[in-house]
Amino acid sequence: MIPSLDPKETKTSLSKNSLPLQGWVQGLRGNNHVQFLQLRTNGEIFQVVCEKEKLGEEVFKQIKTLPQETSLEVAGTWQENPKAPGGEELLLSSFQIVGSSADYPITPKEHGPDFLHNHRHLWLRSKRQLAIQRVRSELSFAIREFFRNDGYTLIDTPILTGSIGESAGTLFSTEYFDLGQAYLAQTGQLYLETAAFAHSKVYCFGPTFRAEKSKTKRHLTEFWMLEAETAFLGQNGNLDLQERFVKSVLKTTIERTKDDLKTLDRDPEPLLNYLEKPFPRVDYGEAIQVLTNAGEAITWGEDINAEREQILTNHFGTAIFIQNFPRAIKAFYMKQNPNDPRTVLSADLIAPDGIGEIIGGSEREESYEKIVDRLKEEGLPPEDYSWYLDLRKYGSVPHSGFGMGLERVIAWVCGLPHIRECIPFPRMIYRLTP
Hints:
Its main location: cytoplasm. GO terms for molecular function: asparagine-tRNA ligase activity; ATP binding; nucleic acid binding. This protein has helices spanning about 5-15, 50-55, 55-65, 115-120, 120-125, 125-150, 190-200, 235-255, 260-265, 270-275, 285-295, 305-315, 370-375, 385-390, 405-415; strands at about 20-30, 35-40, 45-50, 70-80, 90-100, 155, 160, 175, 180-185, 200-210, 220-230, 280-285, 320-325, 345-350, 355-365, 400-405. The chain is of the alpha+beta class and about 425 residues long. It has two domains: about 20-100, CATH 2.40.50.140; about 120-420, BirA Bifunctional Protein, domain 2. β8 and β9 form a beta hairpin. α6 crosses α8. It is elongated. It starts with 6 loop residues before the first helix and ends in a 20-residue tail after the last helix.
């Protein structure tokens, strides 16, 4: 097996061995004898020590008045300093201004969320946002690494589609030349299933779209989703895979982003403690009973909302799978439960700490006749799914899959209160810019 590299270590070593350094002024502090310049380069912040005695009065005065976000080229020598970021700092010998900056709008003072999101293109330069986006990058890398090492093939599924995977009421639509309506994909699953019949183990990872008019802290209209499909795999094996996957990629990400989590004031220990426990597999009926005992007015057949999900994770003390949901509230492609025809072999993985559902998955129905019946029940024309139905005609096999929303997992890892910070440019029902 090819050993995996730590991308952060590689980036840091390249930065420190490449002089002159090129970057931006993140901040300045000091006195009339020495200034400590925070230089942002390659998404990291290094300390540059500027000594008046070494540089001279005029150069030192120019450094003291450098505006925030001025771009620079600096040269010098590295020296150890345990108090500096990364344990090293650059003792400046010379610098050159590359691009000026004046009246940078995001200052160290407090700004409201609307102001910051209106300036999102600049806010990405802040320490907090640098840390979040590095966590996102490392988590995305760990996801791809996991599936590559597990023998899965990456399949890029279309964003424009004529087929509906889930509720038609949450689709963005557009006219597609002379062919009628096209939709922005809610999921790559249907296409991924076709690839599973070719490669057995496949995954896709990319943007998906939901036209839900939701203003909650857990919803975006554009988000990234990891989806996996596996041939010859039943629902129990599917849950085993999901649990192993989540625990593996989260532990890897936490290990690689310790400094970033410290920047975010996120203590990873409570999260790591969750990951050391088995994730209980709670039947939907049992979950309803727990909620009823907790005083919730909920009956069998209802969906479980975010507040009730938190009651359940608090009750079990960790992340949980809720499985075997009522057939009536789940998608047409989910396999009917042979032990209870009212339900399907599905499961949602619910994260604690108010994060809620991070994975939805199921065993897929492999019967041609049952899929056709379910399409008709949902009011979906079977002829529009002829290519999908072919899977059930030519060598159908049991198979299962799941989808995981990236941003909710980032919120869990980073301990963030709102999902809008988890993606570089959030798209919500009230925001389309920048």
